[in-house]
Design goal:
36% of the residues lie in helices and 22% in strands. It is an alpha/beta fold and 308 residues long. Bound molecules: S-adenosylmethionine.
Length: 308
C-alpha cells in the first residue's frame, strides 16, 4: 500500500515538473511543442503521446534500444558514487557552474546531464547547489531546472528513485527531445557526445561541460585486467581535439586523486565499469590484495558555442 502511494507521488511530482517546464520539450516524433494532456501524458498537437512511468520518469525514445550497460553495472556504479568516489569531481563541477552562474546574473538555470547514467552526478550537483546559500539562494534555485537523460531505462529508474525534483527522461542524446536554446548548461560526463545536438539545445550564452578520462583513470584496473594487451593504455587526445573542433574552449581543468578503497566496496568497484567486461573475475580475494586504492584522473572541458 505504502509503495503504491509513493509511486503515485513520484508520478505526480514528475508530472508537475514537466508541466512547469513543458516549453523545453520537443516532440521526438514530429518536433512540435508539447503539453500535458488530461490523462497526464506528455503529448503534442499531432497526438504523439508519451506516458509518465509510475516510477517518476518519462520514456521519450521512439525506437527500441538494446541495453549495452547492465542494471547490475548501474547499481554498482550507484554504490561507488554514494561512497564519495567522485566527490572531488562534483565539487569542481559545482564550482564551474557557480562561477558561470554568477557571471551571467540569470534568474534560474536549466541544467541538462546528457548520458547521466544512474543519475548520481546530477543529483549531487543538485544537492550541492541547493545547499549553497551564498549563490543559489531563494528564487534563483527555485526557478532552476535539472534534467537527466540516458538511453538506458535501468539507469534512469535508479535516478528517479533518488531525487523526484529532477526531470528524468529515457532519451537519445543524439536526438534530444528538447527545443533549441533550452539549456544554460549541458553536462556530459564520461559518456558519448553529440555536439550538434548539444549546440542546438544550448542557449547562445550557455556552456557545455564535458568530463573525459585521463590516461591514469582507473589505472589499477587496467593494469590488473589488461597487462600489456590493448586497453592497458589510454589517451584522451582525440576526444579533446574533437571537442575543440566543435566548441570554443573556455577552460580545461585536470583532477587527479587517489581514492582509498574500502574492502566492502571492491566488488562494486570492479563491476561499475565496462573496463572489466569479458574479463574472468576469479574470486574477489585477488582484488582485495591487488587493489587498495583507485586513481581518478579526469579532464574537464568547458566550451561555448563557436562564434561565427
Ligand atoms: C560510462 S556511462 C557514464 C554514466 C554517467 N555519466 C556516469 O559518469 O556515471 C555512459 C552512459 O552513456 C549512456 N549512453 C550511451 N549512449 C547514449 C545515447 N545515445 N543517449 C543517451 N545516453 C547514452 C549509457 O547508457 C551510459 O549510462
Amino acid at each position: 500500500m505504502s509503495i503504491s502511494i509513493k509511486s503515485i507521488k513520484k508520478k505526480d511530482r514528475a508530472c508537475e515538473l514537466i508541466q512547469k517546464n513543458k516549453m523545453i520539450f520537443k516532440c521526438p516524433v514530429c518536433s512540435s511543442i508539447m503539453f500535458i494532456n488530461h490523462s497526464g501524458s506528455l503529448t503534442c498537437n499531432s497526438n504523439h503521446s508519451f506516458d509518465l512511468s509510475r516510477k517518476g520518469y518519462i520514456n521519450l525514445l521512439t525506437s527500441s534500444y538494446t541495453p549495452v550497460y547492465t542494471k547490475e553495472l548501474f547499481e554498482s556504479r550507484h554504490k561507488v558514487c554514494e561512497a564519495g568516489f567522485y566527490d572531488p569531481l562534483i565539487d569542481k563541477l559545482a564550482e564551474i557552474i557557480d562561477g558561470y552562474k554568477q557571471s551571467k546574473e540569470h534568474k534560474g538555470m536549466n541544467i541538462l546531464d546528457a548520458g547521466c547514467g544512474e543519475g548520481s552526478h546530477i543529483n549531487s550537483i543538485f544537492n550541492k547547489i541547493a545547499n549553497n546559500s551564498n549563490t543559489f539562494k531563494g528564487s534563483k534555485f527555485e526557478s532552476s531546472t535539472f534534467v537527466g537523460i540516458d538511453i538506458s531505462k535501468d539507469s534512469i529508474n535508479i535516478g528517479a528513485r533518488n531525487n523526484a525534483d529532477i526531470i528524468w527522461c529515457v532519451a537519445d542524446l543524439a536526438k534530444l527531445p528538447f527545443q533549441n536554446g533550452s539549456f544554460d548548461v549541458v553536462l556530459n560526463i564520461l559518456s558519448p557526445a553529440n555536439y550538434s545536438e548539444f549546440n542546438r539545445v544550448l542557449d547562445d550564452e550557455g556552456i557545455v561541460i564535458k568530463v573525459v578520462p585521463g590516461s591514469e583513470y582507473l589505472i589499477e584496473l587496467r593494469e590488473l585486467f589488461y597487462k600489456g594487451e590493448d586497453g592497458s593504455e589510454y589517451s584522451n587526445n582525440i576526444v579533446i581535439d574533437y571537442f575543440k573542433e566543435k566548441l570554443d574552449v573556455k577552460d580545461i581543468k585536470h583532477i587527479n586523486y587517489k581514492y582509498e578503497l574500502d574492502r566492502q566496496l571492491l566488488p562494486d568497484f570492479v563491476k561499475m565499469t565496462p573496463l572489466t567486461w569479458g574479463k574472468v573475475i576469479d574470486g574477489l580475494n585477488k582484488y582485495e590484495t591487488d587493489i587498495s586504492t583507485a586513481t581518478v584522473d579526469l579532464t574537464i572541458l568547458v566550451g561555448t558555442k563557436k562564434k561565427l
